[in-house]
Amino acid sequence: MPNSKNNRKEPEKNRRGRLSEKASSFHGRIPAMAPSSELRRPKTLPNLLSDRTVSVSPDARPKLTKLLLNVTIQGSLGAVQVVMSPENTVGDLIIAAAKQYSKEGRRPILPSTDASLLDLHYSQFSLESLDREEKLIALGSRNFFLCTKKAALKDGANNNTTSCSGQAEKATKSVMIPWLKFMDFLF
User: Fold this and answer.
1) Residue 93: is it exposed, middle or buried by C-beta count within 10 angstroms (0-12/13-18/19+)?
2) pLDDT tens digits, residue range 121-155?
3) Are the CB atoms for 47 and 39 separated by under 8 Å?
4) Which span out of 24-33, 54-63, 65-74, 111-120 was modeled with the highest average pLDDT?
5) Which end of the chain is more exposed for a tag (fewer CB within 10 A), N or C?
């Protein structure tokens, strides 16, 4: 039976030679067979923009052209990402987020994409809804929470500005013991 070492006699010598080269380079000795040619650097133009004079004032910031906003819909697993202009209003964001949510076919399905039935909040823990006429650039946040106004419609309220704070007040008014309404964290 042929032995694999018998078939590799010549490559083994080369292998030993390579090992000695590696060992010598490891110990700081440069092998004699190392190439002496250096790598050629590409030619660059360091003074490419020296003819131009650019004056930038410290107060001038670049104007925002688009905003990437994350809107989490109540009951949904992830946020819907919407790209909008900073001059748009909260009402425009509600409409765009509802359209994007239904376009992506997310679950649970919204009962209606009508913007008048939806409220936008800073977070799911925020009781006050955002004003629909407020500009997006003035909000100071890029993450929002969208919920329905089902509870407001069940109460028979006609105004469109009813928020979750109305629900919280109704819950505290229904408490029989008046001093318990100050401990709203229990309910």
Assistant:
1) buried
2) 999 998 899 999 999 999 999 999 999 886 444 44
3) no
4) 65-74
5) N
